[in-house]
Design a protein that fits this description.
Strand content: 25-35%
Protein name: Sec translocon accessory complex subunit YajC
Family: Belongs to the YajC family.
Membrane topology: Single-pass membrane protein
Shape: rod-shaped
Helix content: 40-55%
CATH topology of the largest domain: SH3 type barrels
Structural class: alpha+beta
Number of domains: 2
Order of helices and strands: HHEEEEE
Number of helices: 2
Radius of gyration: 28 Å
Strand order of the largest sheet: 4-3-2-1-5
InterPro entries: Preprotein_translocase_YajC
Largest sheet: 5 strands, antiparallel
Subcellular location: Cell membrane
């Protein structure tokens, strides 16, 4: 006998062994895609739509934690003018705006009527 039984068995089951080796890697990639990559892409698209829909009078929260009201939206530019205090206006980049806040109504303040 010139060929040992171990080599003979390995040559016969090559296709199935290859699939079983790559199946866990494919499964891990699928889990990462559906749990990490896809939700992040969805959030990025929503944020882009939110920034493109900015208008004068919106209350915004910047990435630095500053609350303010949009006073001027410059078309074609990445800058937005935000009033952070009475008569204090700053220019911020659109990308630094983290969220547009809902206006506070009298019913939401917690006061009992």
């Amino acid at each position: 006998m010139l060929i040992s039984p171990a080599f003979a068995q390995d040559a016969a089951g090559g296709g199935l062994a290859l699939i079983t080796q790559f199946a866990p890697l494919i499964l891990i990639f699928a889990v990462f895609y559906f749990l990490l990559i896809r939700p992040q892409q969805k959030r990025q698209k929503e944020h882009k739509v939110l920034l493109s829909a900015l208008k004068r009078g919106d209350r915004v929260l910047t990435a630095g934690g500053i609350l303010g009201r949009v006073t001027q939206v410059k078309d074609g530019a990445d800058e937005v003018e935000v009033e952070i205090a009475p008569n204090v206006r700053v220019s911020v980049l659109r990308q630094t705006i983290g969220d547009v806040l809902k206006p506070i109504s009298a019913n939401d303040t917690g006061a009992k009527s």
